[in-house]
Amino acid sequence: MQAQWTQKYRPKTLSEVVGNEEAKKKILQWIQSWSKRPPKKRALFLHGPPGTGKTVSVEALANDLDMELVQSNASDYRTAEAVERFAGRASKYGTLSGKKRLILFDELDGITGTADRGGLSVITDIVKKTGSPIILTANDAYDPRFSTLRNYCELVEFRKPSRTNIEKQLAKICSLEDIEAEDTAIKLIAERASGDVRSAVNDLQALAQGKKHLTYDDVSWLATRDRKDVIFNVLRAIFYAKDSLTARDAADMADVDLDMLFEWIYENLPYHVKNPEELAATMDMLALADTYRGRIASTQNWSLMRYFIDFMTAGVAASWSKKASGWVPFRFPTRISRMSASRADRQMLRTIGLKIGKRCHVSSVRAVKEILPYLRVMLGNNPEMATDLAKYFDLDEDMISYLVEK
Amino acid sequence: MWTEKYRPRSLDDIVDQEEIVNRLKSFVKTQNVPHCIFAGPPGTGKTTAALCLAHDLYGEGYREHMMELNASDERGINVVRETVKTFARTRSIGEVAFKMLILDEADNMTSDAQQALRRTMERYTETARFILIANYSGKIIEPIQSRCAPFRFTYLPREDVIKRMKHICENEKVKIMDNGIEAILEISGGDLRKTENILQTAASVGKPIDAETVYSVVGRANPYDVREMMLTALNGDFVGARNKLREMILKYGLAGSDIIGQVHSEAFRLNVPDKWKVKLADITGEIDFRLIQGSNEEIQLSALLAKLVEAGSEIKRGN
Question: Of A195, A219, A243, which marks where a domain is finished?
Fold first, then answer.
C-alpha cells in the first residue's frame, strides 16, 4: 500500500509550507524572542480554516530548530488533570536530551465542556507561567470559550492559500510521482479544494494515484462520493427556491462539485417540471448554463463560472411555477455512469475507423459514420464475408466481437 | 470490400466525369500537373480520380511518388509544418520531376493549417504538386483556391449507377431485382460509395436482392431515427425522446452536428404549423452555433427536444 500523500509530502521545513508567508514570519519572530527569556506572551495561538497548514507549520518549525515537540490533540483527553499531567511538567522542566521543548495544543476547538472539564482553564494557567514555548491551534480563535486564554496569547491568523499556490504544490507532487497532469485538471482540483491544501492533496491522490496521465475528464466528476443526501437537499432547494437568490445560494450551501450538480439538475428537471412551456424554458436555462461551461473550457476563463451557476440555479428556479406534483424521487444522473463506458467506446471506434479509413481512403470519422454501420451488418450476416473483411481491414478479435455484439 | 475491389485503377477505367477525366489525361500526357482542387459531394470519384492520376503518371510503383493524407485525421498545423513539408521539399527520383500530395477532406483543415499550407505549396512547387479534395471548395481559403486548378465533381447519372451495380452483381454472382436497384438508388442518391456499401451489405444476406432486403439492411445499419425522436417529443414524452437522443450519441457514436443536421432537415417535414417550423429552425441554428463554441451536444439538443414538447402541446391546444 502506498503512503498517504499528505504524509509523504508533508513539509519538513517551514519554508515548504504552502502560502501564509506572513504567518510563518510571525511564528519565526516569536520563537526567536524566546532566545534569552520568555517573551511577554508565552503562547502563540494559530487560527484559521482546516487544511491551511497550522499543524504542519508547528511540526516543521520544531524540525527546523531541532526542538522536541510535545503535542496533544483532540484525540487525547484534555481534562484539567490530563492537561496537567501532559504539559504541566513539560512546561517546567528541561528535556533529557538537552533539546529545547515545544509544546503544541492542537485542535483546541475539539475540547468539549463535559468530557474535558476544566481543561481550558488549566491550559490558561500553564500558558501564564510556562518555561517552554507553547503553540495552540484552532479554527476559530474568537470562540467565547477562548476569551480568557486569548489574552495570554499572540494571535497568528492562517489564511486559505491562493489557488495558484495550491496548484503549484499539486504540480510538484505530480512531477515527483511521475504523473503527467493537464493544467486544467490541476486547476479544477485546486479550485474545488477552496484553500484546503490537505483536501486538495487527498483528492489528487484519489484521482491520480497509479496513473501516468491525469486529464480534465478524470477530475471533473470529483466529489460524487457519498454526497447523495447533500445533493438531494441542494436540488430541492434549487428547484423549489422561493426566489432566485435563494436558488443561487443553494449551490454554495453545500460543497458539491458544480459539474456534478449540473448533471443532477439536468437529469431530474423533467420529472419535476411537467408543464411543456415551463419545461422548455427551464431546459433553455440549462442549455445557456452549458454554453458558459463551453466558453470556460475553450477560454480557460474561470471567472465565467458564476454565469454557469446563475443559469443552472436561479435561471431554472425563475422559469417555472414550482408547483410540486406530489413526491418525486431523485434519480442518479445516467450520463455519468455511461460517460466512462462511452469513452472506451469512442476509443475503440476511432481505432477501427482509422483501419477502415486507411483502406477505403476516408477519414476515421467518415469511416465510422458511413462505412462502419454497413460493415457491422455484413459481419453479422455472413461469416465467410466476415472472415475476408476482418483480414482485409486487419481487425483483431476484440474489434470484431465489439462490432458484431453491438 | 467492394468499394475498393471495384475502384478504378486508371483514368481509362473511369466511365464518368468525362470532362474532368479528359483534362487529367492531358496532364498525364504532358507530364505536368498543376495544384488542383477536386470539389464535389461524397461518392462522386474525387479520391479515385486523384489516385488514378497518380497511377497513370508514375506507373505501377506510383505509391512511392505520392503521399495521401486525410486532413480530418491530421488536421492541425503541425502536420503541415512537419509531415507535408518534409515530403514536399525532397526531390523526386523518377522521370516525373515532382511528387504528388493528395490531401483528402481538405475542407476540414483548420485555417491556421491552411495558411501554413499556402506557403508550402508556393515554395515547393518545383518538387511537389498538391491535390486538395473537399466537399465544399468554399471552405478552402481564397489564397489557396487561387493557386489551384478547380475541378467540380457532380453526382453520377442514374443510368451509370445502375450499370455499375449490375456489373458488380454479375461479377460477384449475386442476383438483384429491379425493385432492389430502385431501393438502393433511392437511399443513396448518386453517392457511389454508399451505393456499393448498401449493395454489398444486401448481398451479405445471401439471397436475391429485392427492395425488402435493401430496406431491412439499411434499417439495421441505421437503427437510430431522428424523426422518431422528434415525434416522441412532439407527443409530449420528453424523457422518452431524451433517451432516444442518448442512444444515438452513446451507442452509435453520432456527432451532435450530424444529429443537428438531420433535425434541421426533418423539422420542415414535420406536421407542425409553419410558425413553429421557423421557430425550430431558429433554435436549431442557435444550437448549431453553440456546439461549435464547445457546448455539450446532449444538453443543447435536449433543450431543443423540450421546445418540441412545447410545440406539441401548443398545437394540441390549437395555436
Answer: A219
- Residues 6+ away with beta carbon under 8 Å from A319: A278, A281, A282, A284, A285
d(CA B244, CA B228): 9
A73 assigned to some structural domain: yes
Tens digit of pLDDT for each residue in A196-218? 888 888 778 877 877 788 888 77
Identify whether residues A31 and A69 lie together within a single domain: yes
Which of A295, A338, A377 lies closest to B221 in CB terms? A377
Q: What is the DSSP string of A46-80?
A: EE-STTSSHHHHHHHHHHHTTPEEEEE-TTS--SH
**Structure ipTM:** 0.76
The whole-angstrom distance between A382's CA and the closest CA on chain B is: 5
Q: How many CB atoms sit inside 10 A of residue A402's CB?
A: 18
Q: What is the grid cell recorded at A397?
A: 478479435
Number of independent structural domains in chain A: 4
Q: Which residues of A touch B73 (CB under 8 A)?
A: 354, 357, 363-365
B303 touches chain A (CB under 8 A): yes
All domains of chain B, ordered by start, with CATH?
2-152 (3.40.50.300), 158-221 (1.10.8.60), 226-313 (1.20.272.10)
CA A360/CA A367 separation, integer angstroms: 8
- Closest-CA distance, A225 to chain B, in angstroms, reads 24
Q: Return d(Cα B131, Cα B55) in angstroms, integer.
A: 14
Listed residues A157, A190, A208: the one ending a domain? A157
Set of chain A residues whose Cβ sits within 8 Å of the Cβ of B312:
276
User: Taking a contact as any Cβ pair under 8 Å apart, which residues of chain B between 110 and 139 contact chain A?
Assistant: none
pLDDT digits (tens, 9 = 90+) for B85-144: 888 887 777 778 889 999 999 888 877 888 888 888 888 888 889 999 998 888 888 888
Pair (A321, A365) in one structural domain: no
Helices (H) and strands (E) in chain B, counts: 16, 5
CATH number at residue A201: 1.10.8.60
- The verdict on A25 and A116 lying in the same domain is yes
Compute the nearest-CA separation of B309 from chain A (Å): 6
CB contact under 8 A, B251 and A354: no
Answer yes or no: are the C-beta atoms of B256 and B301 closer than 8 Å.
yes
Please count the other Cβ atoms lying within 10 Å of the Cβ belonging to residue A66.
Answer: 9
- Grid coordinates 427556491 are at which residue? A241
Residue A306 C-alpha cell reads as: 458564476
Q: Is the pLDDT of residue A96 over 70?
A: no
A33 with A131, same domain?
A: yes
* 8 Å CB contact of A276 and B293: no
Nearest 5°: the CA angle A138, A140, A145 is 90
Q: What are the residues whose beta carbons fall under 8 Å from the beta carbon of A211, sequence distance 6 or more?
A: A179, A218
d(CA A83, CA A14): 27
* Domain residue limits at A292: 228-332
Q: Cell numbers 533539546 correspond to what residue?
A: A99
If one counts every other C-beta atom within 10 angstroms of the C-beta of residue A230, the result is 15
Asked if A348 contacts A281 with a C-beta cutoff of 8 angstroms, the reply is: no
Taking 70 as the pLDDT cut, the residues of chain B under it are 75-76, 223, 251, 253, 319
Q: Is B105:A366 a contact under the CB 8 Å cutoff?
A: yes
* Residue A344 is assigned to a structural domain of this protein: yes
How many beta carbons lie within 10 A of that of residue B86, not counting itself? 10
Mutant choice from A267, A291, A389 vs B, greatest count of B C-beta within 10 A: A291
Q: Are B54 and B167 in contact (CB under 8 A)?
A: no
Name which of B296, B301, B308, B316 to mutate to probe chain A: the one with the most chain A Cβ atoms within 10 A of its Cβ. Answer: B296
